[in-house]
Sequence to fold (115 residues):
Amino acid sequence: MKSFLKSFIYAFHGIWSGISGERNLKAQIVVALLVIGAGFYVSITPEEWCIVILCIGVVIGLELMNSAIESLVDLVTLERKPLAGKIKDIAAGAVLVVSCMAVVIGIIIFRKYLL
Fold:
C-alpha cells in the first residue's frame, strides 16, 4: 500500500513540476479554467461536461507527455542535433493537433449558447 501511495505522490510531483516549469502548460490550464467557467456560466449539459473534461484532460495530459519527452531529449544531448529537434517537433505537433481538435469541439459545444 505504501508503494501505491508513493506512486501517487510521484505522479503529483510530476504534474506540479510540469505546471511550475512549463509556460505552455500554464497557458493551457488558464484556458481550461476559462472553459470550465464558461461551462458553468452557460450551464452546459452533463454530456457536454464529459466531453469538455475529456478534452481538457487529453490536452493537459499530452502536454505533460510532451514536456517529459523534451526533458528526456535534453538529458540525452544538449547539442543541437537534427534528430533531437525532430523528436521535440513531433511531440509538440501532437499537442497542437489535439489542442486544435479540442478548440473545434469547444466551438461545437458552446456555439449554441453564445449565438
Summary: The helical segments are 2-21, 23-42, 46-76, 82-114.
